Fold this sequence. Notes:
With 719 residues, the chain is mainly beta.
Amino acid sequence: MKFYLTIIFSLGSIISQAQFKLKGIVLDSKREAVVGVSVWTESKKVVTTDSLGKFSMIVASKGPIFIHLSHKSYQSFDTTINDLEKEVEIVLKEAENELEDVVIVASSRTNSTIEDLPTKVEVLGSEEVFEENQIKPGNIASLLGDIAGIQIQQTNAATGNADMRIQGLPGKYTQILRDGMPLFGGYSGSFSILQIPPLDLQQIELVKGASSTLYGGGAIAGMVNLVSKKPKLGKDEHIITLNRSSLKENNFNAFFSSRNKKIGYTLYAGATKQDEVDVNKDKYSDVPRVGSIFFNPRLFIYLDSASKLILGYTVNSENRIGGSMLGIKSKNTNDFFIQNKSLRNTADISFEHDYKNGTTLTAKGSLSFFNRDVTTNLNYLKGQQKIWYSELAYNGRTEGHTWVMGMNFNGDHYQTNASSGTILPQQFGQTMGIFVQDDWKVGKKFTVQGGLRTDHHFTYGNFFLPRISMMYKLTHEITLRAGGGLGYKTPTLFNAELDERAYSSWLGFASDIKAERSNGFNMDFNFKKSIGDWDLTFNQAFFYNQIKGPFLMKVYPSLLPPSPYFYYNASAPIKTNGFETYVQAMHNTLELYLGYLYTDARKTYDQAQPYLPLIARNKLAGIIAYEFSDKLRAGIESAFTGKQYLSNGSTTKGYIFAAAMVRYGVGKISFVLNCENLLDYRQNKRNQVVFPPYNNPSFPEIWAPLDGRVVNLSMMLKW
C-alpha cells in the first residue's frame, strides 16, 4: 500500500511542476524575420526573438497564455495563445508614426523608448530636423536653440562663432556626439555647431546635466547626440534643397539613400557660400564670408539577419573670414581680418551583432584628422589635431533589467606647425574607461537606473563617475524623475570664447593644473494627457550644477608686450541652478508651446563680479504652428531673453526675438519662406561693437544678434 501511495504522490508532484514550451516566430508585413522583439508573459517573464525571428519559453500551463510583443520599429501587439502544440506565427505592423515611439540611443545605449527611461531626454525628431533643412539648411544652431534650456550665443564679432550654453554653463562643458561617438574637441571644437547640416540627421537627442558615466569626460552640462539617417528596406529616398537668404547666403544640400536585403547606403553632399555683410555700415563685417563643402557617404552591409556593418567617411572643408570690409578683400596687414581655413577628414566603422539570447554586441571606432590655418593681419597659426575613439559594448534585457557594459579607448593629439611662430605647446591625451549601467524595473511604476564609470587619463589620473536616476510613474499621466552624477573635464588649449589673435601669446597651462570636477542634480515632473481632441503636456524641471577648479585665464608677468596667457584652476567653484517650465498643446494640426527658463549662474571665486557673464537670468519662448492642409503649414515663434551680466558687472537690456515661417508643397516640390528676427533687434543698432585701434580692434561681449532681420526662401525636391 505504501508503494502505491508513493507512486501517487510522486505523480502528483510531477504534474504540479509540469512545464510546457511556448514556441513562435515573428515576421513583418513582408514575411521577413524580425530580430530583437521582446515577448512578455503576464508573469513578467521575457524572451527575445533570435536571428530567425523565433522565440521559445517555458510556461506553467497548457493555456491560454497571454503574451505582449514590443519592438522599437513596430507597433506593439497583444495576443492569447491557446494551443501550445503548434509554433505560433505573429505578424507585426510597422510603426505608423516614428515620433510616437521615439527610440533613444545615446543616454542608455540600449535603444530604449523615451517613456521607459529614468533619465530625462529631450528629442528633436525626424519631423523637426527635416523641417529645419528648409528653414536653416546650413547648420543646426538655430534648431538647437529651439530646445528649452539651451541658449545659442554668438561669441566673436569677426568670425561669427557661436556657443551653445546649457543650464547656465558655457558650451565647452557640453559633449557633442555623432551616433554615439565624440565629434569635436579642443582645436577642432571651434565652429562646431555651425558646421553640422541637418539634412542627413534622423533625430537629435539631448541629455541635460552630468552625463559622463557612459561617454567619459566633457559632458558636465549635458550631452547632444546626433543620430544619422539609415536606409530603409524598399524605400529609396532622394532630396535636393536650394536656399537663398537676404544676407547673401546660398545653400545646396542633397541626400540619397537606398537599401536591399544585403546592402544599403546613404549619401549627403552640401555646399554653403556666404558673402560678407556689413549690416550697420561701420565698415566691419557683422556676417563673415564663408565657403564650405560637406560630403558624407555611408555604406551599410547586412551580413545576415543578426549582423550589420556600417562604414562612413566625412569630408568638411571651410574657409571663414571676417573683419574690416577692406581687410577681407585685400588681406593687407594694415587692415584687420581673421581667417580660419579648416579641413576635417573622419572615418568611422560600426559593427553590431544580435545573439539568440536577446543580447547585442557593438564595436565601433572613429579616426579624425583636422587641419586648421588661422591667419590675421598680425599673426599666423597652423595646427593639426588627430582624434580617435574606440568602443566595445554588450547589452541585453533580462527579467526586470535592461543593462549595458563596455569599455572604450580614446585620445587626441594637437601639434602646431613649426612655421607658425607661436609659443603654443603640443597637447597629447589618452583615456581608457570601463562602464556599466542597469535600468532596473523594480515594479510596474518604479524604475532605477544606476551607472558607474571609471576612467584613467594618462596625464590627469583616475576618475570615478557614479550616476543614478529614478523614475516613478504615479499614474498613467504623471511621471516623476530625479537623478544626479559626477563628471570631469581635462584641460584643453582652445575654446570658442578665445579670440584667434591671442593664440600667438598663449603659453598653455600652469604646471599644477588639474582636471575640472563636477557634480550635478536634475529633477522633473511630467504630466501628459489627452482631453478630447487635445494632447496636453506639462513639464516642470529643476537643475543644479557645481564645477570645482574651473579653468581661468591669467596673464603671465612679462616685460615685453604682448604679455603671454595661461590657464590655471580657480580656488572656488562655479555654481548654477534654476528651473525650466513648459506647456505644450496639440489639437489635430495645431501646435502651441510656451516655455520659461530661470538660471542663476555664479562664479564663487569672484566676489566682486559673482555672476557668470552672458547667461540670461530669464528666458521665455513660445511657438504657434498650424497645418492648414497637406500643402500649407505656417508657424510663428518668439523668445524673450532677459538681462545678462557682462564681465565688468554691468547688465544688458532684455530683448525679443521673433520668427515666422510658411511652407507650401506641390507634389514632390515644397517651398519655405522664413524670416528670422522680425523686429530687427541688433546689438550694433544700439551700441558700438568695434573699438580702436582699427587695425587691431577690440570688441565688446556679444549679448544680442548682430545680423538683424534675415529672410530666406528655399525649395526642396523630394522623390
